[in-house]
Amino acid sequence: MPIEFTHVPGKTHPADTTAPFFYDFAETATKLGLIEDSGFRKIVVDDSAGLLTNMDLAAQVLDRTSSLEVVLTHWAGVVEPTVAARQLASIDRKSGGRLALRMIGEPLSDDDAETRPAGHKVVWQRIDEYLVLLKRLWSNDRPFDHEGAFYSIKGGYVPRKGPHGADLTIRMGGQSGTALKVAGRHADVFELAEGSIEEVRQLMERVRGAAAEHGRASKLRFALPVRIHRGVFTTGHKAVDVSGPPAQVALSLLAYAGLGIDEFMLVGVDTPREIATVGRETIALLRNSLARRETDEFQPGAFASRTRPETRAAG
User: Fold this and answer.
1) Where is 253: in which H helix or E strand?
2) Which PANTHER family does UniProt cross-reference here (predicted)?
3) What is the pTM of this model?
4) Based on the number of CB atoms within 10 Å of its own CB, is 294 exposed (0-12), middle (13-18) or buried (19 or more)?
5) Among 83, 76, 77, 58, which Cα is nearest to 68's?
6) C-alpha–C-alpha distance, residues 231 and 245, integer Å
7) Parallel, antiparallel, or unpaired for β 240-242 and 42-45?
C-alpha cells in the first residue's frame, strides 16, 4: 500500500493566530479543494470548540469535497453511545464512507469524578466500553440491552447503518500499557508519538504486540505526525519535527517510511502556497523515492547493497 498523507490544520487567521482553520468556511472551502488536489488523502477535524462542533465541521468538509476522507476527533463521555452511533453512521452514510473516527483520551468530567475514581486507567476503560458499544450498535440487527461500568443502554439500536457498519476505521494513540492494550483491541490505525527513529520503531513493536493478543497485528496500520517548520510554529499536536527545502524534508521522512509507516500526518502546512508546495514537491518527491525503492528491492543484490540502518523495516 502506498504512503498516504493527512492534513492536520493549524491556526491560520491573518489577524488572530488563535483562530482555528475552520474560522471562515467560505475561505476554508477553497483550501479544501487545494488540499484534495495536492495529494492529501485525509484531513483531521479537531476543533477546540468540542465534539459536537467537530461533527458539524466533518459533515461540512465531506459535503464540500469529493474524495477527501475526514478523520473526526472524538472522545467518550460527551454524548451517549447510542446518540453518537446514529450521528456518526449518518455522516458516514451521506459521505459515501469517507469518515474515520479518531479516539483520544479525555479526562473524566467533574460529575464522573464524584461517583468513581478518575485516572488514566479509568479513562481508557471507558473508551474501551464506548468503542465496544459503538461497534455493536453499528452491526446489530435487533435492539439490545447493556449494563456496564460506564454506560447503561436499553433497547440500543441504530436502524440506518453506515456503509462500513462496525468496520468504520478507528484511529488511536498513546504510549502507556493501558492505552496500548485498548488500542490493540480496537485501533485500525495507530497514531505514533514523536521520537527518534529507534524510539518510533520500539513503539511500533509494542503496539504490534498488543494487537497480536487479539489476532490483529497484521491489520494494524501506522501514522506518524510530522511538523513541517516555516520559522516559529506552535501547535497542540505532538509531531516529529522536520525543516528545510522540500527535498530535504522528503529525505527525512524517507527514513521513517522504512520502518513500515503507512501514513504521514502533516502539521504546519496551512496557507495556499504551503499546501501547493508540499503537494507539488515534498509529497511527490517522497512518493517517487518510495516507488524507486520498491523497484530496487526486487532487483538482484538490492538487499545486500542496502546499508542504511534506518531503512530496515521493523520485523
Assistant:
1) helix 246-257
2) ALKANESULFONATE MONOOXYGENASE, ALKANESULFONATE MONOOXYGENASE-RELATED
3) 0.86
4) exposed
5) 58
6) 13
7) unpaired
- Total domains present in the chain: 1
The C-alpha atoms of residue 292 and residue 286 are separated, in whole angstroms, by: 10
φ, ψ for residue 25 (rounded to 5)? Answer: -70, -25
- Cell 468538509 locates to 61
Q: What is the CATH number of the domain that holds 177?
A: 3.20.20.30
pLDDT in tens, 39-98: 999 999 998 778 888 999 999 999 999 999 999 999 888 899 999 999 999 999 999 999
How far, in Å, are 87, 253, 304 from residue 298 at the CA level?
Answer: 46, 22, 12
Closest CA to 92 of 54, 62, 130: 62
Output the CA torsion sign for 201, 189, 1, 241: negative
Polymer length in residues for the chain: 315
Strand, coil or helix: 89: helix
The whole domain housing 53 covers 4-311
